[in-house]
Amino acid sequence: MNKQGLELIVITGLSGAGRTQAMQSLEDQGFFCVDNLPPTFLVKFAELCAQSRGKVSKAAIVCDLRGGEFFSSLSEALSNLEKEGFNIEVLFLDASDETLIRRYKESRRRHPLSPRGRVLDGIQAERQQLEELRIRADNIIDTSNLTASQLRTKVAELFCKSQGLGQMAVSVVSFGFKYGIPMDSDLIMDVRFLPNPFYVESLRPLTGEHELVREYVFGNQMAQDFMEKYLDLLEYILPKYIREGKTHLVIGIGCTGGQHRSVAIAERVGSFLKEHDYTINIKHRDAAKNQKRGLAQ
């Protein structure tokens, strides 16, 4: 990978303004993240990423006053990165004095520039030290009126525009109720009300991935109406989960044994969400169990 192919983001800003949440948001989007990297190591870090042969194509580094005396060299390190041909973006996180004071009081932490004095004194000193970086920043986010989830969403919108709704990964898991509900499910849909292919002898050994089973499951108006309404529901609610900061959702689709109906529905749901740019993983947890045992579905 050449240097221009590496997406490199440097996160900085005021203590208490949300740097950790910003880094977590980028980490959820597939960025390789490093917290509190001394600026003197920035160029070396970027070179290692560029030499990874595509294993690291997106990286984010948090640099702040925790670096102590090393932090003063951040502006110089950024200039060196540009001279070496790296494309970098600087994200600066800010907040009002009132907001930062409140956050420090809630966390009961000391300000790094005023460990034994007033928090406000530390905030004002930090603003002076960071003024040059704030002017240099490509993006500035004022987090005064943002919740943690709102900040993560805003960061994702800034740096993951090409992914659209794909910023949330969705796992669609078919299962059999006789084997229990998947423990990590966020949403459960019971499709045992649909006609059961198990009672058609020629379909019994097959799974819902087979075309003949799919034709049977969706070959009646009730299934078609259900599918239309359920997909409409998912299309409506999934963006709401994203807005609240959720990055991974597990949808469980269950029938009696997890071989026919749930598999066919899960495949249809997965295809629909993939068409809407979500990152999809489909798993049929129990289908193989029933094929071996010949159990009712």
Automatic annotation (TrEMBL):
<feature type="binding site">
    <location>
        <begin position="64"/>
        <end position="67"/>
    </location>
    <ligand>
        <name>GTP</name>
    </ligand>
</feature>
<keyword id="KW-0547">Nucleotide-binding</keyword>
<feature type="domain" description="RapZ-like N-terminal">
    <location>
        <begin position="6"/>
        <end position="160"/>
    </location>
</feature>
<keyword id="KW-0342">GTP-binding</keyword>
<feature type="binding site">
    <location>
        <begin position="13"/>
        <end position="20"/>
    </location>
    <ligand>
        <name>ATP</name>
    </ligand>
</feature>
<dbReference type="Pfam" id="PF22740">
    <property type="entry name" value="PapZ_C"/>
</dbReference>
<dbReference type="GO" id="GO:0016301">
    <property type="term" value="F:kinase activity"/>
</dbReference>
<dbReference type="GO" id="GO:0005524">
    <property type="term" value="F:ATP binding"/>
</dbReference>
<dbReference type="GO" id="GO:0005525">
    <property type="term" value="F:GTP binding"/>
</dbReference>
<dbReference type="InterPro" id="IPR005337">
    <property type="entry name" value="RapZ-like"/>
</dbReference>
<dbReference type="InterPro" id="IPR027417">
    <property type="entry name" value="P-loop_NTPase"/>
</dbReference>
<dbReference type="InterPro" id="IPR053930">
    <property type="entry name" value="RapZ-like_N"/>
</dbReference>
<keyword id="KW-0808">Transferase</keyword>
<dbReference type="InterPro" id="IPR053931">
    <property type="entry name" value="RapZ_C"/>
</dbReference>
<keyword id="KW-0418">Kinase</keyword>
<feature type="domain" description="RapZ C-terminal">
    <location>
        <begin position="168"/>
        <end position="287"/>
    </location>
</feature>
<protein>
    <submittedName>
        <fullName>Putative P-loop-containing kinase</fullName>
    </submittedName>
</protein>
<dbReference type="Pfam" id="PF03668">
    <property type="entry name" value="RapZ-like_N"/>
</dbReference>
<keyword id="KW-0067">ATP-binding</keyword>
